[in-house]
From TrEMBL, chain A:
Keywords: Cell inner membrane, Cell membrane, Membrane, Transmembrane, Transmembrane helix. It comes from the Bacteria. Pfam families: PqiA. The chain crosses the membrane at residues 66-85, 113-139, 160-180, 192-215. It comes from Nitrospirillum amazonense. PANTHER family: INTERMEMBRANE TRANSPORT PROTEIN PQIA, INTERMEMBRANE TRANSPORT PROTEIN PQIB-RELATED. This is Paraquat-inducible protein A. It is found in: Cell inner membrane. InterPro entries: PqiA-like, PqiA-PqiB_transport. One of its GO terms (cellular component) is plasma membrane.
UniProtKB/TrEMBL annotation, chain B:
Keywords: Membrane, Transmembrane, Transmembrane helix. The chain crosses the membrane at residues 47-66, 93-118, 139-157, 169-187. InterPro entries: PqiA-like. This is Paraquat-inducible protein A.
Length: 238, 215
């Protein structure tokens, strides 16, 4: 499980499916002939194995990613400004935003949990928004450099995104458990729905982003370069 | 169309497929993404695992997760109870989100996988195979039992400051389910497309078959 080799020698041996006139089925991953490009399929080519629609790249990847990112960024504000949880006891009513919930853990002697929740609820969504926008901008600008690092960033973002749901689940459990009429009742605040929506939207944004675009731009044939390509035979085992 | 080639899902680089030893995975030479994996588990073992997970899922959802005691009064909740409480107090969006990611999607995921493995085992052409597998692939990222398990732990720590917390049966069931799901989710759905090659009912060809397209 070592890092990918990104030496120039290994990259120059790579042929992509698109360059070979092939397309990997987005559903069953079968490598098929790109009939749409041959002019036979009239643009609605279907996978011969699973009958799924074939697209060489995700459809409207950048615009969809941007749309979802913007929506997520807007909702990020109410998600943090409004309380996610309201605790009513005999004496008082207390509203907790995500940040004050983290401070509660920090002050009551569980700093590990405070750090964990800070990471998944505040850091991860922010980093996700920032990273995906940066990636989208880099593709728009046709960046070639550091494709391997950008690809790794994307992989990390896609992997950690789901963990942001943690706070929503915590609130749901507290609401279900703390229901002592007249003594203590916990209710979910309006921030919880907004926060859940941010997580879902950023996950959708990451799904709409097509990481293959990173490499498409990085390996556009430059002028004067011979276009002779070979397949990278075999795969690394690990 | 050719089965001997694999395109990297993250960078589109073409590779020639090789059979793997159990428990190993093939990675892209360019970007390092996992191309495909082979599990230690044979199909029958996977089927047994999925059956177990479904049973434990049922236990996890029918018993209370924890019992909370404050000043002699006790209160316990199941996962459904939490969802209903959210719904009743007007947080429908959160209720639906929690219900879908921790109950509906994981159950449908397990059920679909169970059906697919049965279809492969039966070995007869199954019309539903390809649609169900495609559906399962789309659904997979949205099941979040493992995140929920961490949520239980955090909620318990938080509540232990204000009340007596007595772990319920479902707490252990969720822990076990998390472990089982970690194994099940590590099974490569892409390998199911190949394992089910003989049961997939292929769509009728619109165009005359061509030679496989090696570049």
């Amino acid at each position: 499980m070592s890092a990918a080799p990104t030496t120039p020698s290994s990259e120059s041996r790579v042929t992509t499916a698109a360059q070979a006139g092939l397309v990997a089925c987005p559903h069953c991953h079968l490598v098929c002939r790109d009939t749409a490009r041959d002019g036979h399929g009239k643009g609605r080519a279907r996978c011969p194995r699973c009958a799924g629609r074939l697209h060489p790249r995700k459809v409207d990847s950048l615009s969809r990613t941007w749309a979802l990112l913007i929506a997520a960024a807007i909702l990020y504000i109410p998600a943090n400004a409004f309380p996610v949880m309201q605790t009513s006891t005999l004496l008082s009513t207390q509203s907790d935003t995500i940040l004050s919930g983290i401070l509660y853990f920090w002050n009551t002697g569980s700093p590990e949990l405070a750090v964990l929740i800070f990471t998944v609820s505040i850091l991860v969504p922010l980093l996700k928004l920032a990273t995906l926008s940066t990636l989208a901008v880099s593709i728009k600008r046709g960046a070639r450099a550091r494709a391997d690092q950008r690809a790794r960033l994307y992989r990390i973002i896609e992997f950690v995104g789901r963990w942001s749901m943690l706070d929503v689940f915590v609130v749901a459990l507290m609401v279900g458990l703390v229901h002592f009429q007249g003594l203590a009742v916990i209710q979910a605040g309006p921030g919880a729905a907004a926060f859940g929506a941010v997580v879902v939207l950023t996950m959708l944004a990451a799904h709409s982003f097509d990481p293959r675009m990173i490499w498409d731009r990085a390996h556009r044939p430059r002028r004067g370069r011979p276009s002779k390509k070979r397949l990278a035979f075999g795969t690394r085992h690990g | 169309m050719t089965d001997s080639l694999v395109a990297c899902p993250e960078c589109d680089a073409l590779h020639e497929r090789r059979e793997l030893a159990p428990g190993t995975k093939a990675r892209c030479v360019r970007c390092g993404a996992v191309l495909y994996r082979r599990s230690y588990l044979e199909l029958d073992h996977q089927l047994a695992l999925v059956t177990t997970a479904i049973l434990i899922y049922l236990i996890a959802n029918s018993f209370p997760i924890v019992d909370l005691e404050i000043q002699g009064r006790s209160n316990s909740t199941t996962l459904v109870g939490s969802v209903l409480a959210l719904w009743r107090e007007g947080r429908e969006i959160v209720a639906v989100l929690v219900f879908a990611t921790t109950q509906l999607f994981p159950l449908v995921d397990l059920g679909a996988l169970f059906a697919l493995l049965l279809m492969i085992r039966r070995g007869r052409p199954a019309l539903a195979f390809a649609p169900v597998l495609r559906f399962l692939q789309a659904l997979r990222p949205w099941g979040m039992i493992e995140v929920f398990m961490l949520g239980i732990v955090v909620a318990l720590v938080k509540l232990s400051n204000m009340a007596e917390v007595v772990p319920g049966i479902a707490l252990w069931a969720f822990g076990l389910l998390t472990i089982l799901l970690a194994v099940i989710l590590s099974l490569d759905l892409r390998s199911l497309w190949r394992a089910g090659e003989s049961v997939i009912v292929r769509p009728r060809r619109r165009f005359p078959p061509r030679q496989s397209a090696h570049p």
